[in-house]
C-alpha cells in the first residue's frame, strides 16, 4: 500500500481488502438481479407494476403498498412495503424502491427518475424522493401525476 495514505485510511483499506468490512451490495453486472420490463412501457404499465408490488406486500404479510422507480422508460428499482416484515417503520414501499434503485445503480442521485406508487406518498416518502432527485411522482390506479416532490409540501 502506498506510504502517502494516512494510517486510519490504511487500516480501513486493509480491512476491506481482507474482507473484514462488508461493502454495500451493488447491482449484478451479470444481470442476475435484473428487473423484468413491461412489453410496452407506459404510465399504465408502470402503475400496474407498482400494484404488483402491492400484491407482493400483502402476500408476504405486510401493508398493502407498492412502488417502482422508472427512468428513460425502464424500471430501475421496485419494492413492496416491508414495514411489518422488516420491523422497520421507515420501510414504506416508496422508501424501499428508492433504496433498491440506489443500490442497483450504486448512487443516491436519481435525477430524472419518476416514482410510481400504489397510493399517494406520505410526507416521509416525498421528502426521500426530493432528496434523491426524483423528478415526478405518479400514484394510484388512475396514474395521477402528483408533480415534483417537495419538502414540507
Report helical residue fraction.
25-40%
Q: Provide the low-confidence segments as ranges.
A: 5-32
Total E-strand runs: 5
The chain-level structural class is: alpha+beta
On the 0-100 scale, what is the average pLDDT?
85
H and E string:
HHEEHEHEE
Main sheet properties? 5 strands, mixed
User: How many H/I helical runs?
Assistant: 4
β-strand percent reads 15-25%
| Spatial order of the strands forming the largest sheet | 2-1-3-4-5
Quick overview of this protein structure:
This protein has 153 residues and is α+β, with helices and mostly antiparallel strands. The chain has helices spanning 7-17, 43-59, 93-105, 123-132, and strands at 66-71, 74-80, 114-117, 136-139, 144-147.
Description:
It is built from 4 helices and 5 strands, in the order ααββαβαββ. The model is unreliable at 5-32 (pLDDT under 50). The protein has 153 residues and is α+β, with helices and mostly antiparallel strands. It is 33% helix and 16% strand. The radius of gyration is 18 Å and the shape is globular.
Strand and helix layout:
Blueprint: H1 7-17, H2 43-59, E1 66-71, E2 74-80, H3 93-105, E3 114-117, H4 123-132, E4 136-139, E5 144-147
Parallel strand pairs: 3-4
Antiparallel strand pairs: 1-2, 1-3, 4-5
Quickly list its features.
153 residues; alpha+beta; 4 helices; 5 strands; 16% strand
Amino acid at each position: 500500500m502506498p506510504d502517502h495514505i494516512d494510517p486510519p485510511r490504511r487500516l480501513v483499506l486493509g480491512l476491506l481488502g481482507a474482507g473484514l468490512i462488508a461493502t454495500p451490495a451493488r447491482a449484478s453486472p451479470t444481470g442476475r438481479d435484473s428487473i423484468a420490463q413491461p412489453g410496452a412501457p407506459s404510465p399504465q404499465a408502470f402503475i400496474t407494476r407498482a400494484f404488483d408490488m402491492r400484491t407482493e406486500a400483502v402476500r408476504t404479510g405486510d401493508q398493502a403498498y407498492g412502488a417502482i422507480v422508472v427512468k428513460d422508460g425502464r424500471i430501475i428499482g421496485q419494492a413492496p412495503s416491508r414495514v411489518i416484515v422488516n420491523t422497520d417503520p421507515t420501510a414504506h414501499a416508496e422508501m424501499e424502491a428508492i433504496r433498491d434503485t440506489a443500490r442497483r445503480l450504486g448512487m443516491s442521485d436519481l435525477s430524472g427518475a419518476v416514482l410510481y406508487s400504489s397510493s399517494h406518498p406520505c410526507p416521509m416518502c416525498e421528502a426521500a424522493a426530493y432528496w434523491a432527485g426524483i423528478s415526478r411522482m405518479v400514484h394510484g390506479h388512475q396514474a395521477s401525476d402528483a408533480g415534483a416532490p417537495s419538502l414540507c409540501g
